[in-house]
User: Which sequence fits this backbone?
């Protein structure tokens, strides 16, 4: 729905800037609210280092998987051709 | 970088205020977060839809470029799932949801916090911030050993904005457009995949 609206109004630069600012502020607001929710949740506060440990290893997994697959894709589909293959 | 610090600042402010119990109870209501999230999604949609460049880029690319975000999606989800077997406090589904943030920590943590649990929301926040930091630090090494798509792959959704400069610097300008394309696709898919993984799987 939002994407459709956006396409209709893409010539109105001013409005777009307003939207981007609104996105930024709603992200701030939501993370602020998440912060409050977490701060009042004793379980999370008391286990912060364990949560950080879990988060770290999940990152390693996600990054490792992406990089390995991307290496295969690069090797088989991009390397032989002329780079990124776009006519610009 | 400045943007990330401000975002973290808001999270930290809420966190400290929450611990110190500065805020009234109504701020904690789930409904408030849900409506704010609806508004945010609507705004993000408008912002993507009104980006003329995004559609212009789409028309210029070769079909095989689709493989780049696809390998990030499959790689992140499979990689995070594999790691989850070593970890005691997340199951495969939760690990995949965190992996599906693709570095877009603000949106993914908000979504996961709302749909699943605040604890997993914090895991997603930290994990995806780590992803951005690793990208900023390790792109030169990764590109050297894993080829020119490695930076775009670690960058995930951030390859279109915060990590784009470092990616372009170490992989070359001709990959800039691939990075932006992959970043846009992944950014759009973050809310979709996170919701699908948590609600459908």
Assistant:
């Amino acid at each position: 729905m939002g994407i459709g609206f956006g396409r209709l109004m893409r010539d109105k630069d001013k409005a777009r800037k307003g939207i981007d600012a609104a996105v930024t502020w709603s992200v701030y607001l939501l993370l602020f609210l998440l912060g409050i929710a977490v701060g009042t949740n004793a379980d999370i506060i008391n286990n912060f280092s364990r949560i950080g440990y879990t988060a770290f290893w999940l990152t390693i997994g996600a990054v490792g998987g992406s990089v390995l697959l991307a290496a295969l894709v690069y090797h088989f589909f991009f390397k032989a051709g002329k780079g990124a293959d776009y006519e610009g | 970088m400045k943007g990330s610090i401000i975002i973290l600042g808001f999270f930290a402010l809420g966190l400290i205020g929450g611990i110190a119990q500065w805020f009234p109870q109504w701020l904690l209501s789930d409904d408030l977060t849900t409506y704010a999230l609806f508004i945010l999604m609507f705004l993000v949609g408008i912002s993507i839809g009104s980006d003329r460049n995004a559609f212009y880029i789409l028309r210029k690319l070769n079909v095989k470029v689709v493989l780049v975000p696809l390998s990030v999606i499959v790689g992140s989800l499979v990689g995070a799932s594999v790691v989850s077997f070593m970890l005691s406090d997340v199951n495969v589904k939760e690990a995949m949801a965190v992996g599906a943030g693709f570095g877009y920590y603000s949106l993914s943590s908000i979504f996961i916090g709302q749909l699943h649990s605040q604890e997993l929301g914090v895991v997603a926040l930290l994990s995806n911030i780590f992803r951005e930091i690793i990208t900023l630090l390790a792109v030169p090494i990764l590109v050297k050993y894993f080829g020119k798509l490695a930076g775009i792959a670690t960058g995930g959704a951030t390859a279109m904005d915060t990590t784009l400069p470092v990616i372009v610097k170490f992989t070359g300008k001709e990959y800039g457009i691939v990075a932006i394309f992959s970043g846009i696709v992944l950014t759009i898919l973050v809310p979709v995949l996170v919701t699908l993984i948590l609600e459908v799987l």
